[in-house]
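Quick check before the chapter quiz. The format below is the same one you will see on the exam, so make sure you can read both the input and the output lines.
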Amino acid sequence: MNSDSFRNRRNGFETMDGGQSGGSQKKNPSGKIIGIAAAVLVLAILALNSTYEIKEQEQAVLITLGKAQAVSEPGLHFKIPFIQQVRKVNTTIQGFAIGYNTESEEVDEDESLMITSDFNFIDVDFYVEYRYSDPVKALYASRAPLDILRNISQSCIRTVIGSYPVDDVLTTGKNEIQASIKEMILGRLEEQDIGIQLVNITIQDSEPPTIEVMEAFKAVETAKQGKETALNNANKYRNEQLPSAQAKADGIIKDAEARKTERINEATAQVARFNSMYQEYIKNPAVTRQRMFYEAMEDVLPDLKVIIESPNGNMQTIYPIESFTGTRDADEEDAQQQTSGHSAGQGGSSAPADDEEELPAD
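Here is the expected output.
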């Protein structure tokens, strides 16, 4: 029937139903195109929602029906559309200021004004550096982890600043104060466990709150610098003088040691001489004693002449001092002559040799 209708239309004739029976078999092509476009759109949406990318400085939290799981590997990842959701967390080191505004550089006195242990007011500015260590806890352990970190930091800062005098806060105690604050904040963050890690906290600036106090502190700092300069100059002078003084002391010690050795050697020689003289004295005490007397007189009075007087008052011989410096035999002979003459004058009495004669010298 379709073929008949086609031939009739080609020959210029129409069918009895006016050509309506053949047209009912045709389909509408626009509906098919719309369906294909809708299917492509749905597939595109599904494709876009099924992948996500993690950069090097990010971590992601994959949420599957309310259950969170951390994804830390960078690159392209897949997820189930409309069932799994992804939230990304920046894991780079970030920071915020306490005591001033980083954009306008204006001081926030509510945060910066503090009191020290010696009851002085001071403005101190800090900068806190942090990073997210656990993205799951950072998103779900607390509602506002940064606010918690800021409050903990302010509390620890005021506690530590309140335990130091103002001079330490302004000058030499900054490093110690920063270390104490950091340690305290780390302990508090470990207790809270909110997925944020403190990297560092530094003092940006510390100064008195008013101009008058600032000028007074500047004067104190100038005096301290003058003190340090004077101490450095004194140490320099000491370092210059110590070597010369040490050299002089070493010279004196060496001279004293040399004199000590000399005196010891001299004393040793005198002892040896005395011992040798004592040995001779034991052999002949009278002659040795006289010889020692004459030698002593020669040293004390080198120009003296000795006159020997016998016990009866007669002068027998006048001896010059040189005659007693001869040999030992001449001295012994003279002593024997004097001893014999004294014995004849006393009628042959036998007195001890030590009391036989007196030897006064004029």
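If your answer matched, good. Residues 211-283 form the longest helix (73 residues).
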